[in-house]
Amino acid sequence: MATLTKAINKNLFDSILPTFGNPRVHIPVWDEGQKMFICNEYESERGHRYYIGIRFCDRIVIVEKVGLYHNWTYIDGIELYAFNGQKMELIQKRDYDKVFRNEAFIREESEQMVKDYLTGVMKTQRICIPAEQIAAQATELIEGCYKSFLAPDFNTRLTQILPKLEQH
Question: Which residues make Cβ contacts (< 8 Å) with residue 70, sequence separation at least 6?
Fold first, then answer.
């Protein structure tokens, strides 16, 4: 029994962190420093590296498209998704050209995107809510996306999130 358990564990860890020369299983990787999953990392013919970063809370998903050019890290785009009960739908998107990636910038842009979305929905439904309340809700949602996945009280909705992570 101990040999079987040892073999299962060794095979599991070898697929996640294989020895040099063996292919690694493509699974999203949690980056604790950036508080997001890293997906779909690749290198272009010119030697530039790209990856997609995904962070989420119980209501929204933030997708960052990041480019690493020489010694600089740029943000190429931010997409915001919301759950509709069955799947995620794109609710906001912004593309950037030669904008340096900065954590504060990403948070501000994401928060503004949530505010814009909420304001638009409220306007179409003819509901009047103070701008301060919308701003507070947007801040709360964005803060929830920056909570550590490794925290013991993290509310995972991976059954809905993982298919989106695998698409990117």
Answer: 48
88 closest CA partner among 108, 70, 63: 63
Kindly report, residue by residue over 2-52, the tens digit of the pLDDT.
Answer: 444 444 555 666 665 556 656 556 677 888 999 998 988 888 998 889 999
Selection from 133, 132, 66, 71 nearest residue 103 by Cα? 66
Report pLDDT digits (tens) over 15-24: 655 566 565 5
Contact in structure between 74 and 99 (CB atoms under 8 Å): yes
- Report the chain's terminal Cα–Cα distance, integer Å: 39
- Greater pLDDT, 149 or 102: 102
What is the rounded distance in angstroms from the CA atom of residue 62 to the CA atom of residue 81? 7
> Strands 49-56 and 36-43: what pairing?
antiparallel
